[in-house]
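Holo prediction. Input below; ligand is fe (ii) ion.
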Amino acid sequence: MPQLLDKTQDIDFHSEKYKDAYSRINAIVIEGEQEAHENYITLAELLPKHKDELINLSKMESRHRKGFEACGRNLKVTPNIDFAKKFFLGLHENFKNAAAEGKVVTCLLIQSLIIECFAIAAYNIYIPVADDFARKVTEGVVKEEYSHLNFGEVWLKENFETAKTELEEANRQNLPIVWKMLNEVADDAIVLAMEKEALVEDFMIQYGEALSNIGFTTRDIMRLSAYGLKAA
Ligand code: PL3
Ligand code: FE2
Ligand code: FE2
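Structure of the complex:
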């Protein structure tokens, strides 16, 4: 019995099937990092008190994008960015509309909670089954994503009483979109040896912990974090 089970030994990173799935998943991650970069610039405008910190986060997101672009190049895969833009359209539109209305709570829920938890779940599940190059990149990235999630948690915790109603509404509007996105990526994820159930579980843990840190009760968290899941 080997001491550590190498989960990558049966994966052929150079097969056409793997590369085809990677062209979409790699694009999703690249586009997700690019939109996160833009969203933190928007948040810096909405929260001038935290401008420097948020601009700093936006710069980290650009570095993440470059790291994942290198992962695609390393496998000689061309990312399908058109596909990825469509994949993010729902959250993208909701973020844009919320920003236009000055709804900073909704913007923070979409970017710093939902998208960061989605990224953390996906990256944690990907790391053990990634190629050596992508594993190193993803390990570096995921550490920083926790600090982005933390920014949202701290701000929302400090403003919990006034933010609560808007958080509930934003959760109701955006969480079903996440379940839809997970379904859309499930078939490609399995080719990369990532299971949808593991992604859902990890997301629920991250998101539930975030809601708890902000100040929601266990009862609220159960209701909020599974909203729209049954219908998915
Ligand atoms: C913000 O810092 C990052 C936004 C990226 C969101 C990524 C979501 C990923 C879902 C796709 C599941 C497969 C992941 C594969 C990992 C390389
Ligand atoms: Fe990132
Ligand atoms: Fe991030």
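The mean pLDDT is 96. That is the main takeaway for now.
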